[in-house]
């Protein structure tokens, strides 16, 4: 019989947030794959457990090479526990390749759910939580970052991002440029840790605040785009939206149809605006 892959969420700050089952899985797994074995050692010491199984590293640099080895362990009947430094494996952390490979070989995959920076920041932001989307880390290069932001400029759902502290000021400035300086947002820093801080306000003000320097692990929550009625959307805006979708890889026909739907307009209106822009 094949084994089981267990994805284990680990505390994002306060070790007391660790669920009891995490200690049980760490103690009983045949193999523990950890993003950082030194941090794993600190975690197990804090929980008072000693892994009985083999401990090995599984991080971005060796993820591709080590995945086949772990799949072989699973096919041999092992219980493999995957932990990352904080949060949930595969969510902006190593793990996706292993999960995909395990699923492909019909290996059982389960999870020990733990604290999530995404949901914690969303709940604390004070912004709408009924609909949201997680965008992970933005590209490091300025041009690619702007392109990615433009793709979601009209997204109505609340947006959640991870960001490094040394790039936060540039990211917030880019968001203010694309989304508008008055778009509401919240910067959540060091969640559940001693120096936890939630800074809320318009993107323009947050960008100025971040320029002074910010430390710690950062999650940014941004309000979704406001709803616009058909009468508010002019031809130039319709053309811009089509161009954004085309730059993201959509075919023009699909982009026109999507923009027409979100604007509440007939496709012919959007098509005519695009044709008129090209003839100028």
Question: Can you walk through the features of this model?
Answer:
This protein is an alpha/beta fold. It has helices spanning 20-28, 37-47, 63-75, 96-104, 117-125, 142-151, 168-179, 203-210, 235-247, 252-263, 267-278, and strands at residues 4-8, 31-34, 54-57, 79-83, 108-112, 132-137, 158-163, 184-189, 197-202, 218-222. A hairpin with a 7-residue loop joins strand 8 (184-189) and strand 9. The longest helix is centred in the N-terminal third of the chain and has 13 residues, at 63-75. The chain is globular.
Number of helices: 11
**Dominant shape:** globular
Order of secondary-structure elements? EHEHEHEHEHEHEHEEHEHHH
Q: Name the strands of the widest sheet in spatial order.
A: 3-2-4-1-5
List the helices and strands and how they pair.
Blueprint lengths: L3 E5 L11 H9 L2 E4 L2 H11 L6 E4 L5 H13 L3 E5 L12 H9 L3 E5 L4 H9 L6 E6 L4 H10 L6 E6 L4 H12 L4 E6 L7 E6 H8 L7 E5 L12 H13 L4 H12 L3 H12 L2
Parallel strand pairs: 1-4, 1-5, 2-3, 2-4, 6-7
Antiparallel strand pairs: 7-10, 8-9, 8-10
Helix pairs in contact: 3-4, 6-7, 7-8, 9-10, 9-11, 10-11
